[in-house]
Design goal:
The chain has about 130 residues and is mainly alpha-helical. About 60% of the residues lie in helices and about 5% in strands. It contains six helices and two strands; from the N terminus they run αααββααα. It has a two-stranded antiparallel ribbon.
Length: about 130
């Protein structure tokens, strides 16, 4: 999994994630890099939970998880939605599809945590896709 300095460098390579957020991720989620798939988003409380009963179906929402982690990801998600080319495209696509801004921002937060988990697991830094 690598040492703390390596994990910090990997997290800092993600555009929008600075020192404070990277340190918060390392402290609040020490298992980052050891989780499978979308478990990181669920552990952070960023996985959508469906509300339904029988034929009735409500809206999906996020709940549970680690609130301090969500708080630490909020402003980096705003920065990433503006300055990270890949996440900016994703954010704009969600807004164009009719999603509310906070819902789109939550999706960016989820994407950051899932991405951070994968990058630490693979011991590699962020690279911008050219799609």
């Amino acid at each position: 999994m690598g040492g703390l300095a390596e994990r910090l460098a990997i997290l800092r390579s993600i555009p929008g994630v600075g020192d404070v957020t990277a340190i918060a991720l390392i402290i609040e989620m020490p298992e980052l890099g050891e989780l499978e798939g979308k478990q990181a988003a669920s552990l952070a409380g960023l996985a959508p939970v469906a509300r339904q009963s029988g034929k009735w179906q409500g809206k999906e929402r996020i709940q549970g998880g680690r609130a301090t982690l969500r708080q630490a990801l909020y402003f980096p998600a705003i920065a990433a939605a503006r300055f990270n080319p890949d996440l900016k495209r994703k954010y704009e696509a969600l807004i164009a599809a009719g999603k509310e801004k906070k819902v789109a921002l939550t999706a960016i937060m989820r994407k950051i945590i899932v991405m951070a988990n994968a990058l630490i697991r693979d011991r590699r830094r962020w690279t911008t896709s050219h799609a």
